[in-house]
Amino acid sequence: METASGTSAPHPGKRELTPSAQTAAAFFRALARTLKVARLYQHDNPVVDQGRKGLLAQLNDALLHHGPWRFRITPYEIWLDDQAVVRPMDSNPSSDAPRTPEEKLPFLLHRDGVRTLTLVHEVPAAEFDALFEALQTVGVGAHSHDDLVTLLWQANTQKIAIETVPFAQVIHLDTGESGGAGDHGAHQAGYLWSPAGTEIRGDLGQAAGVTGLHRDSFADWPIPEHAGDVTESFARLSHGMQFVRSRLRADLSAEAAMDWRQEARRLLGRVLDVDDDVRTRAALAHSVMTWLARSIQDAAWDEAREACELLRRFDPDGSLTDAPLAEALNQLDAEDITARLDESQNDDAGRFFGLSVGIGRAAIDLACSIMALALKSRTRAAACTMLCYLCSDSPELLARYLGDSRWFVVRNVVFVLGQIGGPAVVPLLERAARHPEPRVRHAVVAALGNCPGDERIPLLIAQLDSRDPQVLATSLQMLGRAKSPVVARAILAQIEDPNFAKRSPDSQRALFNALGDCADDEMVHRLETLLHKGGWFAQPSLERTAAARTLARIGSEAALAALETGLRAHREAIRNACLEALNMKAA
User: Fold this and answer.
1) Are 6 and 103 in contact (CB under 8 A)?
2) Structure pTM?
3) Whole-number average pLDDT of the chain
4) Which residues contact 8 (CB under 8 A, 6 or more apart)?
5) Pick from 129, 124, 28: nearest CA to 80
6) How far is CA 442 from each of CA 144, 406, 556, rounded to the nearest angstrom?
7) Which of 48, 442, 469, 516 is most exposed, with minimal Cβ within 10 Å?
8) Closest Cα to residue 494, out of 529, 456, 466?
9) 3-class secondary structure, 303
């Protein structure tokens, strides 16, 4: 066994890799992609089976041309000699940048103690399947109880060899008297104080007179005086073993046919019946919590539903397990779960999110992660629906997700807040309204439709200076419902702004049309000023025509008098604008 250091030479560029290293890098990329596919489908799926066979053929062909490969494993890289065949795309491996599938392989190997991996030509299918299944097993997340080294040792591979970190030596205590030339007297291990001196034995080899764990550990067994005949003894025992073997097989068959979930419910229920104490409930709830988390990771939704029901029996209000359950769910591989939900052809997404609503607030972080990672709209829609249920009473739980660097995540959170509605979401929407992405602000305006009118008006007015036509149009449409002088003054202030002429013609018309819906006589004088703007140098303009039409839409005596005055103006542009507005009103 040897230990590899995490430090290494500077990364060579992709063009500097030798042909052997380039082939090895391509193999690990294909291996990572096939492992990801295998986690999405059943192990007997034709796609998975074909991928594994193709990988094995690719590996043996590469080993035939380039000779045996001996890889050195570090936490973030896999090295072939002095060349990194797998390495992070980002120069900082601890950053939150998205990882390619093969970048996870070094950590999986290094985490379980593997420091070198050697592959020799003519790797049998059974040995490659053992390596593939071991990587698939340990790659499902933190809730796997298997490790890569144990799984490979159990497979007893010959063409695939690993070297691991050395195991710590076990220290054994001498609990009896020892004699011999090397002893310094008899010592008895004390149980009321720490052992010391010759009571501690670390030699695991053959040593005369040394008790403890070594090769001659049966010296105290009595030696029989007579030896039995093996054949005769076996024949005598075999008659009784026939019944024992048949009974064992029957028990195994009965156990295999039994639904272990029902047995678990029955056993844990009996424990609670014996001792219905808060500590017992906490212990049972924590045990069921791990079952629930693992079932979610494996996409076993029926098991997860039963585990959730059992968890609520032991912890109805979530006071015992909400915090540790949230931590356990956060450690799951959200990317793998999301990929399963995206690829599912049945109602798996609905079943999962229905389950998450039953879990409660502990599932909020997982739901937001899936909402951010989902590629299919139906998966994102199900995640948003779930968050609406989970956060309906406490929308402030979503506040920290408004600071996410991904604009589409913020937009989806704003959509959830809009579905919840009410005065509690207004401060959160006010924060999102300052987002630089127009699509987020448009979602904010749409979400304000479910908020109280008096509280949403300031936020909508703040959006009037937006240069995005969609945001402006939606804001004006919603403000038009208020029919408030405050709204009219805010719109007119935008029109009187010196930079109003720089707006697009569509935005200018939208502001004037909205003003015509809510203006009154208070605005007549200011509109008349806009109508006569320019004096002797007045020219036809959209602003002048729109001001005249707005006066006509107001239709009061003061507004019509302003238009009559405009008909007697010296400049033709003013007279034409007033005449056109009056003709449209008469029509």
Assistant:
1) no
2) 0.57
3) 80
4) 74, 77, 79, 84
5) 28
6) 44, 16, 35
7) 469
8) 466
9) helix
